[in-house]
Specification:
Blueprint lengths: L2 E2 L59 E8 L10 E3 L2 E5 L4 E5 L5 E5 L8 E11 L5 E8 L5 E7 L3 E8 L2 E10 L11 E8 L2 E6 L2 E7 L7 E7 L6 E13 L2
Antiparallel strand pairs: 1-14, 2-16, 3-4, 4-5, 5-16, 6-15, 7-12, 7-16, 8-9, 8-15, 9-10, 10-11, 12-13, 13-14
Length: 248
């Protein structure tokens, strides 16, 4: 069962968030030619909107504790890099760059030495070449069988969350235009994720934009991705990854 909050609206309740770390090492995960990372999703039909009363502004900033990981992208072995059919992935000056060169190409890279369950993570995304529905963002709770949740922004200002299980996709948070997503390029946004058991909260520049509930994907790896929606290239840089414990 998937529970969804209204996109780009604050959530009026807060969950109790215990500290929990998992320091076990994951199996090595490498891209394969048979994985369908963008399987088709059902067409989203919006429901009639309702008039909502005006409510006071809610402080939705995440609460977190001690830092677990601080990654400035200087250690080559921490991430999948190299030249691929769809483009290249490389570490630069304190950043990782995903350069998609193939028509409707897709690239991703996973952090190689972590398995996470409950945490708060932030990373800065800087699309330097993108347009329209070109897409970039985060892969979370990636399993050894490549099931995962995908938190993505498009270059025309939309946000979404997809869930991929055994190559089948669904959208617990369908695409929605959101003022927290910077349109066009070059631009910059601090993407954040707070994961507590089955509840996952999604942030942009410290502001909560939506949350989903998923009881199936409770732990896994962490990664970044970029995708071209046309024949044009896409380049996105990611930097300053920080992962924190979460607190009650």
């Amino acid at each position: 069962m998937i529970i969804i909050s209204a996109a780009c609206l604050p959530i009026a309740t807060q969950s109790s968030i215990p500290i929990q770390n998992d320091t076990s090492l994951p199996p090595t995960i490498t891209p394969t030619g048979t994985t369908v990372w963008f399987p088709p999703t059902p067409t989203f039909t919006p429901l009639p909107s309702a008039t909502l009363p005006i409510t006071p502004t809610i402080d939705s900033r995440p609460m977190y504790g001690e830092i677990i990981i601080a990654d400035n992208f200087t250690v080559e072995d921490n991430w999948i890099t190299g030249n691929f059919n769809d483009g290249s992935i490389a570490l630069g000056e304190n950043e990782i760059t995903l350069a998609v060169k193939r028509e409707k190409g897709y690239l991703f890279s996973l952090r190689q030495d972590i398995i996470l369950d409950n945490y708060y993570a932030e990373i800065t995304a800087n699309p330097s070449i993108c347009r329209g529905e070109d897409e970039y963002g985060l892969l979370i709770r990636v399993s050894p069988s490549l099931d995962f949740l995908r938190y993505s922004f498009t270059c025309n200002g939309q946000s979404r969350v997809d869930r991929i299980i055994q190559g089948q996709a669904s959208s617990p948070q369908p695409p929605n235009f959101c003022g927290a997503v910077p349109p066009g390029a070059p631009s910059s946004v601090r993407m954040g994720i707070l994961a507590k058991d089955k509840e996952i909260f999604f942030y942009a520049d410290g502001k909560l934009i939506f949350n989903v509930s998923d009881p199936n994907l409770l732990r896994g790896n962490f990664g970044v991705f970029a995708r071209s929606s046309t024949v044009e290239p896409v380049t996105v840089n990611f930097s300053d990854l920080k992962v924190y414990e979460i607190i009650p």
